[in-house]
Amino acid sequence: MNTHEIDYRIIGEEMQCVEIELDPAETVVAEAGSMMYMSDEIAMQTIFGDGSKPTEGFMGKVFAAGKRVLTGESLFMTPFTNAGNSKNHATFAAPYPGKILAMDLSELGGRLTCQKDAFLCAAQGTTIGIEFQKKIGVGLFGGEGFIMQKLEGDGLAFLHAGGTIIERNLKSGEKLKIDTGCIVAFTKEVHYDIQFVGGIKNTLFGGEGLFFASLTGPGKVWIQSLPFSRLADKIISSAPKMGGKRKGEGSVLGGLGDIIDGN
Predict the structure, then answer these.
(1) What is the pLDDT of residue 117?
(2) pTM surpassing 0.85?
(3) All domains of the chain, ordered by start, with CATH?
């Protein structure tokens, strides 16, 4: 294997974290700011790019890091290396309610395409790049834009997504229509396209937007029930307006109901 062989334990139910067990000299690479806690003998060092090519020159590392900016991620990533002589641990937390998925890239054809903010951490040696959507329609209306994240390697990578996660194994030619924001990841064999919802009433009042994502097998697809954008929209819509009060929780009593509730 080109990737470090790490062990792990996923902790929690709705707000999960993943504890990575590192043997001496083993390394896990994580998004900047995702570390929760670590053993005293774990050494961290912020770098450009993903560290999958340690002999790569400075300009190559800058270019690789610059590509990550296109996905909305930081220029920097942080490797955590066990500098001790025994097993040690580093733990990484999910940024919002949902599930952490452990993906063994060696069992998934060595490549996985995922939404831009899904990546949490991976074993050293995993290449974390970008995947361009070649069709203009997919890029403009596919929810994730022209660019998604691409994970390549033969080790473990960890993704995070919101709500409940459903894994579907599509047969050859089998097609699945998905809300564009609900896609978490799919394997390299899956064909990604978009499809017009159709019908004036569906388009204007269906609440699903103008397009579905269309994924065609063979391959595996992971779907989330609560995209972060949808969660954020709900929070914003219920937040106090400037100079006003928060939105009620469905009570016909309105403000009087808040008083009765002790709010």
Answers:
(1) 82
(2) no
(3) 7-162 (3.60.160.10)
